[in-house]
């Protein structure tokens, strides 16, 4: 997970983030997280699209819904998330589309509640578009999330954890397919060629570290079923 720079978490957003079920994710975003690209590349090489698992020296493992809930604090119960947006006219504000908001800074001091809410909505759009459901650039936000933000009071009733996990599985399967070259996540998560990339040796070292893993080196959390 990467921190999205340019949009600082304002304490005035907290009630709206809690309402949307994204407060824990926002707290993570407000700290610095670096993406370990060699580690991601090494794990992508071990991804089995047919089973949605990583083939490890000690057996098969995967990312579960419990992991998403525990690590990101996202709700995993509730309505399913659908990304279809058809009623564009509903989201027009003052003669211009609501998705033309350009709110990259915190809400101004002394702003009224309506203004703070608008900035909070922009922050939530940023979280969805560049953190949970990012493309390779990580700087664009799809308007598919606009209906959810427009109904902020209802956002907490959706299973964002399930949607995030499904998106991750989809990304992993796409990038693991060596024939996919134009899909957004492919260029972001594709493996490095040791003969070309300066990060090649780091990928090789990561592969070796994974190859040497033993069952005792892996901490397995109990599942919900247990």
Automatic annotation (TrEMBL):
InterPro entries: AminoTfrase-like_pln_mobile (IPR019557), MAIN-like (IPR044824). One of its GO terms (biological process) is meristem maintenance. Residues 21-181 form the Aminotransferase-like plant mobile domain. It comes from the Eukaryota. Coiled coil: none annotated. PANTHER family: PROTEIN MAIN-LIKE 2, PROTEIN MAINTENANCE OF MERISTEMS-LIKE. This is Protein MAIN-LIKE 1-like. It comes from Arachis duranensis.
């Amino acid at each position: 997970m990467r921190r999205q720079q340019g949009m600082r978490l304002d304490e005035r957003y907290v009630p709206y983030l809690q309402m949307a079920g994204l407060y824990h994710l926002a707290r993570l975003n407000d700290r610095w997280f670096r993406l370990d690209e060699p580690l991601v590349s090494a794990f992508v090489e071990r991804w089995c699209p047919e089973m949605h698992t990583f083939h490890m020296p000690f057996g098969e493992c995967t990312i579960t819904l419990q992991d998403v809930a525990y690590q990101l604090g996202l709700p995993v119960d509730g309505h399913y998330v659908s990304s279809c947006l058809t009623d564009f006219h509903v989201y027009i504000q003052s003669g211009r589309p609501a998705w033309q908001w350009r709110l990259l800074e915190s809400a101004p001091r002394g702003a009224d509640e309506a203004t703070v809410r608008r900035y909070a909505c922009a922050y939530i759009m940023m979280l969805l578009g560049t953190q949970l459901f990012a493309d390779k650039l990580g700087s664009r936000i799809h308007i598919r999330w606009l209906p959810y933000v427009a109904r902020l009071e209802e956002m907490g009733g959706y299973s964002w954890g399930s949607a995030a996990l499904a998106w991750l599985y989809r990304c992993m399967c796409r990038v693991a397919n060596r024939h996919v070259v134009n899909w957004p996540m492919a260029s972001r998560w594709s493996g490095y060629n040791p003969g070309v990339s300066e990060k090649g040796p780091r990928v090789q070292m990561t592969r070796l570290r994974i190859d040497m893993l033993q069952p005792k080196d892996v901490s397995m959390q109990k599942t919900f079923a247990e």
